[in-house]
Amino acid sequence: MNNLSNHLPEFLEGGAESGNSLLHYVQSMSPETVAQLSKPVSPEVFHMMERNIIGLLGGLPPENFQVEITTSREDLGRLLASAMMSGYFLRNAEQRLAIEKSLVTTEAESQS
Questions:
Q1: C-alpha 4: how far from its chain's center?
Q2: Angle 21-28/73-111 helices, nearest 10 degrees?
Q3: Residues 6+ apart with CB under 8 A from 26
Q4: pTM of the model
Q5: Domain regions of the chain by residue span
Q6: Quick one: which of 98, 31, 59, 28 has its CA closest to 90?
Q7: What is the pLDDT of residues 4-40, one digit of tens each?
Q8: Smallest Cα–Cα separation from 25: which of 99, 80, 89, 102?
Q9: How far apart (Å, rounded) are the C-alpha atoms in residues 41 and 63?
Q10: Whole-number Å distance between alpha carbons of 22 and 106
Q11: Beta strands in the chain (DSSP E)
Q12: Within the chain, what is the greatest distance between any pair of CA atoms?
């Protein structure tokens, strides 16, 4: 996460006039950063993200329905931003849980 700074990216600052700023922001990330952000550590977080995106798009099973989703560029950008933010919050929760488990384990070992 080399290119993250202390301010919000332009696409989160409400700059609809900035055009392709979300695309440019995602493209500016290193492949390692994208890979790190794209893969949750636990399968639970992966399934939560999957259910979240299915919920946003609609949950009809593709084997029984021919689902076609049509949207505008702006709405697709909002969907992507929403999915990114959800992933960010879930990743933070996952990291916090890992830290808490580590602290409990360390505390239990020190009391033994």
A1: 15
A2: 40
A3: 34
A4: 0.53
A5: 1-39, 42-112
A6: 98
A7: 444 445 545 554 445 577 678 878 888 888 777 777 6
A8: 80
A9: 29
A10: 41
A11: none
A12: 60
